[in-house]
Structure formats: C-alpha cells, structure tokens
C-alpha cells in the first residue's frame, strides 16, 4: 500500500516506520525542513529504542521516504495519515490549528479517491470538521475520513506498534474500513470497526481510565500511610482479580507526559461543551496535581520543615523512564518549588538532562548519580529508571552528608533501607526514621 504520514512527531514517525517495516511504501511529511534532513539521513529525532535501526533499514530498502512537501507524495498515496500535534490551549481544549491547516492542504491537492485518517488524538467531531474543510477547499468529493487513534507508549513505542493490542477504525465507509483492516491485520487481529465519533471517544476514554487508575491508587497510598498499610501489597492483592489487573496500579508522584494530562483536560472540556459535568476525571486531575507535591511534604518532614540551605540530589527528570521527554514531568513542578524553599538542587537523568534545562529555570544538572549525591543532605527519586533500581546504598551512605532518601517511585524496600541505615520515606508505605 502507498501511504503518506503527515507529521513526524512521536505518533507519525513511529507509525510511518512500522508501516514501512510491514512492507508498505511510506512517505513521511513534515514542515520542519531540518527534521526532514536528519530523518532522510536515518537519524532518529526522538529517543526511542529500536527506532533508528528500523529507520535506517527501511530507508535503505527503499520503502521509507521523507519530504517537507506534501505535494510530492500526495497523488500516489492511497491512505493519508494525519499525525500532527494537538497541544492543549489554556482552557484545556485541544488546539486544532495544525489539523485544520493539513485539511486545507489536502483540499487543495485532492484529485483522486483518498482515505484520510486521523491518528492524532482529536476531540469528538473533528473527523466531520476535516471533511467539511476539505469539501470547502475542493469540488472533488470522492474521499473518506477515518478516525484511527494511536495507543503507543513512549519508551516502548516500536514494540507497542508492532504488537498493537487493538486497531480502532472509525468510519461509515465499508470501502475505507476494508482498506484499513488490511493495513492493520499484520499487526493485530483485534480490530474494532465503528463510527468516527465512537473511535475518537475510545481514545479519550482509554487514557482517562488509565489516569483514573493511577490517581485511584495514589489516593489509596495516601490513606495507607495514615492507617499503617502498604500500598504495594494492596495493589498486588487487588491486581490478582482479573477484572482489576496489576498494571497501572503503581503509586507514585502522579502521571505526566504528553498524553494523560492533555487528554484528561480535553475530555473534561469536550464534556463541558456537550453540557455534561465529568466529575470523576476532574477529580483525577486534582489528585494528580496534589500528588506531585507530596514528595516535598515528605522532604520537609525529614528536616523539621526547614529546607533552607539543604543540598538535594534529584534522580530522574523525565516523566517516565526510557525517554528524554520532559512534557508535564513532575520534576517541572517539584524542582522549582525546592529551589524556592532554599534548597541547592543537583539533578541527574540518564538522558533528559539537556531537555530538562530548557523547561526548568536555574536547573543544575550533573552527568552521573555519584556527582548528584556527593555531599547531599537528601536524595529524591522522581523517575523509575532501571539505573536507579540498583543503587548501592552502603557506598552512597559514605558520600552523602545525611542519609535521607525520599523515594517517589517506591523502588526500594523500607526494610532494606532500614538495614542500610537510611531515613527512608516512600509513597503509601511506612517511613523508616
Ligand atoms: C500513555 C498511554 O499509556 C498510551 O496508551 C497513550 O497512547 C499515550 O499515553 P505514555 O504517556 O507514553 O502513554 O506513558 P505511560 O507509560 O502510560 O505512563 C504515563 C504516566 O503515568 C507516567 O508519568 C508514569 O510514570 C505514570 N504511571 C504509570 C504511574 O504513575 N503509575 C502506573 O502504574 C503507571
């Protein structure tokens, strides 16, 4: 199949590369000329395991191309994927300016049957809007607009796409549904064909549900601390119930990233516009914001509420491991607050140091764990990187000024930390003093 993917962000680039890996001819389009130059040379523009290898392989085998001109690939493509950004506006609403711009360009170029597919997460009803814009730009009306939301996770984007758990195809056109089913069958047998509005809603409902699971377990964690229970065991016990499952029940400092915060607030906004007050998701958002600051309360508790002049080592800046993505990372709220309270912060992340400096003012980063903890009064763990799961606390104790660890991701057992002689405070478990 000949495919064109507009937008080479996370979703567009990964989808384009994976479609080509399955034997399709794919051209990825982006207005950013510099980005296209890099991609043409086989250089991945995002940090994602396995991406660069597949990129190079498919370019050299002639199935994957890049251009900054949509007109170069539009005519010969059967399916056009729209994967441009939909950043949140101040009021939480998704900003559709890039989607609308692409729809105008498509309207100007279209002269033969095309299947136009939205992969970007868009408010319910956007498919109809795209259809309307194309119709306004062109008298050629032989095209279908399909919603095909993407569920990949950063850090395992290639794996998630190559082994997708389901493909959602939202269209009233049986012709378009057939083509997209054929395109997705090499990836999964779980194919849901429905109307566009339902497909658009599936994406928001899925992300909001996962965010709800996280905020739910974080509230349970807060309660566990008050009644002497251990949230990790509670989650384990709950998870054996197949109806609940173990995933997304890891208590911590809350979710971040480019999807959950944006999609929950967009869902609240979609509901408001439809005249519905979506109470649960509003509370999920509030719980998530408060949870970020819990780690600061814990640090304050370790120092009798006086943090001025304290040297604090922060391990982890990215919103989750295996990515350099700082979008809506808890560190973005936590570190400025620590600095405001008078702490001297030295931070280390295996890959996100540079990106973090762009979004956290006055951030001092160091290239190793050791340099971060040298002389520190406290160590804060914000991201559950593998590297932070196997720290040698006997050696660490020798270089820190005070043996205080505040663990926002529950990476260690409180009993082990007690044996190592540390003050250890984590989420939803007993504090070792
Ligand atoms: C998410 C969805 O998982 C994916 O399907 C969708 O397409 C995009 O949004 P992503 O943002 O890449 O993917 O990350 P994910 O692994 O889902 O984690 C999101 C956030 O939740 C991270 O900040 C993570 O630390 C946090 N999280 C996750 C928890 O705090 N506890 C958990 O149990 C799971």
UniProtKB/TrEMBL annotation:
InterPro entries found in the cross-reference section: 6-PGluconate_DH-like_C_sf, NAD(P)-bd_dom_sf, UDP-Glc/GDP-Man, UDP-Glc/GDP-Man_DH_C, UDP-Glc/GDP-Man_DH_C_sf, UDP-Glc/GDP-Man_DH_dimer, UDP-Glc/GDP-Man_DH_N, UDPglc_DH_bac
* Keywords, sorted A to Z: NAD, Oxidoreductase
Tell me which SMART domains the record gives: UDPG_MGDP_dh_C
Q: In the UniProt entry, which residues are flagged as the active site?
A: 259 (nucleophile)
Positions that bind NAD(+): 30, 35, 86, 121, 154, 262, 327
Q: Which reaction does it catalyse?
A: UDP-alpha-D-glucose + 2 NAD(+) + H2O = UDP-alpha-D-glucuronate + 2 NADH + 3 H(+)
Which Gene Ontology biological process is one annotated for this entry? polysaccharide biosynthetic process
Pathway note = Nucleotide-sugar biosynthesis; UDP-alpha-D-glucuronate biosynthesis; UDP-alpha-D-glucuronate from UDP-alpha-D-glucose: step 1/1
Q: What class of enzyme is it?
A: oxidoreductase
- Which residues bind substrate per the record? 151-154, 203, 248-252, 256, 320
- What's the EC number here? 1.1.1.22
Question: Where in the numbering of this chain does the UDP-glucose/GDP-mannose dehydrogenase C-terminal domain appear?
Answer: 313-414
Single GO molecular function:
UDP-glucose 6-dehydrogenase activity
> Where on the tree of life does the source sit, at the highest rank?
Bacteria
* Family (UniProt): Belongs to the UDP-glucose/GDP-mannose dehydrogenase family.
PANTHER family cross-referenced by the UniProt entry: UDP-GLUCOSE 6-DEHYDROGENASE TUAD
- Record's protein name: UDP-glucose 6-dehydrogenase
Q: Which organism is it from?
A: Metabacillus indicus
């Amino acid at each position: 199949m000949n495919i064109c993917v507009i937008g080479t962000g996370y979703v567009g680039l990964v989808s384009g590369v994976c479609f080509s890996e399955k034997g399709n001819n794919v051209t990825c389009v982006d207005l950013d000329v510099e980005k296209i130059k890099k991609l043409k040379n086989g250089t991945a523009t995002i940090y994602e395991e396995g991406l660069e290898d597949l990129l190079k392989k498919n370019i050299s085998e002639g199935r994957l191309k890049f251009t900054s001109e949509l007109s170069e690939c539009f005519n010969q493509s059967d399916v056009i994927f729209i994967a441009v950004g939909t950043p949140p506006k101040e009021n939480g609403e998704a900003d559709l300016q890039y989607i609308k711009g692409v729809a105008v360009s498509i309207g100007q170029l279209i002269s033969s049957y095309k299947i136009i597919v939205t992969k970007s997460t868009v408010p319910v009803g956007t498919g109809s809007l795209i259809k309307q814009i194309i119709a306004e730009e062109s008298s050629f009306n032989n095209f279908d607009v399909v919603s095909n939301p993407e569920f990949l996770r950063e850090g395992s984007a290639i794996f998630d796409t190559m082994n997708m758990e389901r493909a959602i195809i939202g269209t009233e056109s049986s012709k378009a549904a057939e083509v997209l089913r054929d395109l997705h069958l090499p990836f999964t047998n779980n194919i849901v064909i429905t109307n566009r509005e339902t497909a658009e809603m599936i994406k928001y409902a899925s992300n909001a549900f996962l965010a709800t699971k996280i905020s739910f377990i974080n509230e349970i964690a807060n309660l566990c601390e008050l009644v002497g229970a251990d949230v990790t065991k509670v989650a384990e016990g709950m998870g054996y119930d197949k109806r609940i499952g173990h995933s997304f029940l890891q208590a911590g400092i809350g979710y971040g990233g480019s999807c959950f915060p944006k999609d929950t607030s967009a869902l609240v906004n979609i509901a408001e516009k439809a005249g519905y007050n979506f109470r649960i998701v509003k509370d999920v958002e509030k719980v998530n914001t408060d949870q970020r600051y819990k780690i600061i309360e814990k640090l304050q508790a370790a120092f009798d509420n006086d943090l001025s002049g304290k040297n604090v080592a922060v391990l982890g800046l990215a919103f989750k491991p295996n990515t350099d993505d700082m979008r809506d990372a808890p560190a973005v709220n936590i570190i400025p607050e620590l600095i405001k309270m008078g702490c001297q912060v030295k931070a280390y992340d295996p890959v996100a140091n540079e990106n973090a400096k762009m979004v956290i003012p006055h951030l001092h980063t160091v290239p190793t764990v050791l340099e971060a903890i040298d002389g520190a009064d406290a160590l804060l763990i914000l991201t559950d990187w593998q590297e932070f799961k196997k720290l040698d606390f006997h050696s660490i104790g020798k270089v820190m000024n005070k043996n205080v660890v505040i663990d926002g991701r529950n990476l260690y057992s409180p009993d082990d930390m007690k044996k190592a002689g540390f003050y250890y405070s984590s989420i939803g478990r007993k504090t070792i003093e």
